[in-house]
Fold this protein.
Amino acid sequence: MTAAAGGGPRRTLETPVEFLTGVGPRRAEALRRLNIFTARDLLFHVPHRYEDASTVSAIARLRVGDDATVIGTVVSKGVLPTRKGLRIFQAVVQDPSGLIEVGWPGQPWLDRQIQKGDQLLLSGPVRFYHGRQLAPREFVNLGPDADPTGAGRVLAVYRATEGLSFKVIRQLVEKHLDALLPLVQEYLPPALLAEASLPPLPEALRALHRPTSVAEAHAARARLAYEELLFVHLLQRRAHALAKQARDGIVFRNRKELTTAFRAALPFELTKAQVRAVREIVADMCRPERMHRLLQGDVGSGKTVVAVFAALLALENGYQVAVMAPTELLAEQHARTFDALLAPLGIIPVLITGGRSPKERKLAATRLQSGEPVIAIGTHALQEERTQFAKLGLAIIDEQHRFGVEHRRALVERGGKGEKPDVLLMSATPIPRSLALTVYGDLDVSILDERPPGRQPITTALRPESARERVLGFVERQVTAGRQAYLVYPLIEESERSALRAATKAFAELAEGALAGRRLALLHGRMKPDEKDAVMRRFRDGDLDVLVATTVIEVGIDVPNATVMVVEHPERFGLSQLHQLRGRVGRGAEESYCILLGDVGPEVAARLAPFLETEDGFVIARADLEQRGMGDLFGERQSGVPMFKVADPLRDEALSEVARAGAERLLQSDPELRRPEHAGLRETLRRSYGRAMELFRVG
Ligand code: ADP
Ligand code: MG
């Protein structure tokens, strides 16, 4: 303890932060909240942005309406009460060009944190309020002894946390940077760095914290992002390679019996994308390695037909097929779709859900145990003990992200005679191919990026509150014409209860007003699953005209007679969510409409624009990912796949491609990363991704 307490020469990258000079127990605690546990973590703590003279505006030049960043000294400050009881903290800041007032409504406590003489870095819009006033979206207190102008140097701005200001983080980094940098060695192969035009690690870390230009800082960030992308690709490709190596799959033979008959009986031509996907799947299934393929395509792109081909290939080889859906309703729907498609071949799938009677389930279980080649469609109930497949050859998992890894595994491990079934995952959340290769790098991916022809476009519009009566009148006329409609309310303030209140109130108003005499029902998240299913079934069967719902409408539910989707508070939705909602209409022959109803500001209107302009799910998904980041997407894939800290696979798309190619080559030359020159790489990979490294332990 005593030796380490002073920091000094014995410091290593593993030294816990509390032993660094300038860090006491309280700061250490705050640093841990930023995931900074060791000196290394501090060194790798990436600034979230940079400011330099080129991004900072002269105060005198600010115009009302600008959105700007300035650096200035506080010359006066104070808390002003307003008539409405709101207290505003105000400061006047000055730079060599002039003065501006800055206002923080409702944040009187800032009076304790900001002192006269402090340098502030501020960004936000300039408004008119008794003259020009800056409304800071973000600010950094640089302290009293910062450079007067910030000019001529680049400022790394770190994300602060409670009890740890930006200023302290920067001071700590400054204090220890020179001592820590010599401890860092490059571990990525120089050839890879050269190929990606990236600086080596020590130089990158220096430039990350103490850049001489913003460009240099960005190159430094790219070095760290590249490393993350490379590591993820290494792990994914390794997992993929191991899966391919394991030759424990079933070798199906393309007998072209059922599949050919099916194709001949289809009332339409397959799209090119469908033909491609079927070919990829058939090739996979006919190889000795197990298939691990993701089929992704927008709503209505025709995934089910593709899945049927795979199922028939298994059947004609004498194997059983399991189709697993996340809810009973979706399972029933799949069963009906499969029924309809397979009727010409005289094949009838078995439906296995919790809702079936014990007798029905027992009967189904007997058939599965007999090894008879059948298609079993169901929910989680498929994995329960009673439904033992004697000869499972193919597992198809729909809306795969809605199942945990464990659920999927449980089904997939259920082969007969030690055989492992092939796996086809399906997803209706389209993401760009390059991104799919990053997120799903351990799978093969087939993409349906083409719509079956003849689908009518869905008329989509954004309408203001003042148009409410007209919109509801339109819904009423559609209902009179025999159609059905959805009216959707978002979760407001993260609470199902308030959404329910809004939906309930609207429901009552509609039932007495605009839609009086119509058959309405309310669907919300507080209902029990079977109550929800009952309402959905009535809607599906045409026993309801209008469904007023919080966002619990089943993704993927198919009611061809529904032609109108009205979405309230569209500003509360992400673009992909809206796209999924819109996908509930336009499934039949009638013209369909999606109306976003509500007053939104120009910013929200701009955000919603991609949704209004296109029905292409890939374009919408990309825009959505750009707007909201990728958290959700990677959250779904906890199966040993680490989250990115620095890289953004969408923004860093090109870098990710380079990293993927690099990872492939690295693994070709040294599949287990055993070569001495890769020791550092291996060690870092282990430290960063611990458990996932088992992939490299399997010989
Ligand atoms: P997804 O599951 O991808 O949302 P589906 O497989 O349910 O899409 O297909 C949507 C609709 O399009 C179904 O009615 C289906 O019969 C029809 N369909 C599928 N492929 C084609 C095609 N190539 N040409 C015309 N219609 C098609
Ligand atoms: Mg579907």
Notes: The radius of gyration is 30 Å. The chain has five domains: 1-48+161-183, 55-151, 186-246+660-699, 280-448, 458-614. The first strand starts at residue 49 and ends at 51.
